[in-house]
Amino acid sequence: MQSQENVSQLLIEWSKGDQKALDKLMPMVYSELRRLASNYLRRERQGHTLQPTALVNEAYLKLIDQKNAKWQNRAQFYGVAAQLMRRILVDYARQHQAAKRGGSDQQRLSITSAGQLGGKKLAAEPQIDLLALHEALEELATIDSRQARIVELKFFGGLSIEETAEVVGVGHATVERDWKMARAWLRNKLS
């Protein structure tokens, strides 16, 4: 596996306009992006038509369209990729609900699983009402945008506390505190 420094260096070179860096970068990050996509889709409703490869490909197209991105490191890249995947999944969920005209076979996110956001227990959940989670995160963002960003990075991006702190630009203790507060808020909101 390639080192984090190599990925970060290629991202910096890509942000400076080096297309060859992008060609070297994508094979290095593809497996991690596919793993993230697989985890997201495992939580989706049964019969979801979007496959992990398609989700990664859609996110990839949006990533390479980021013309003015100033990539700093691998954690920031995966955070942006996670945000893009979240938006793609929310768009698909909206399309699915529109097709069903309001009905949904998705389960609501339980208090227990909301308390385990980003943990192994949530990954074992077969289905999540992604729209409810998205709406709750949007509301949380109006109250505390940093907490919403931390949830997004940890839950959708799979970043560690340290990586999240690096992306958000705050200390480790601040991320842990905000993570706990955001989980409690989401637990209350989604119950």
Structural notes for this entry:
The chain is mainly alpha-helical and 191 residues long. It has 10 helices and no strands. The protein has helices at residues 4-15, 19-42, 52-64, 74-100, 111-114, 120-124, 130-143, 145-156, 161-168, 172-189. It is globular, with a radius of gyration of 17 Å.
Q: So what's the overall shape?
A: globular
Helices, by number, come to 10
Number of strands: 0
How would you spell out the order of helices and strands? HHHHHHHHHH
Q: List the uncertain runs.
A: 101-107, 109-115, 118-126
What would you report as the Rg, rounded to the nearest angstrom? Answer: 17 Å
User: Ends: how far apart?
Assistant: 41 Å
- Describe the sheet with the most strands: none
SSE layout and pairings?
Layout: H1 4-15, H2 19-42, H3 52-64, H4 74-100, H5 111-114, H6 120-124, H7 130-143, H8 145-156, H9 161-168, H10 172-189
Helix pairs in contact: 1-2, 2-3, 3-4, 7-8, 7-10, 8-9, 8-10, 9-10
Q: Which features does this protein show?
A:
191 residues; mainly alpha
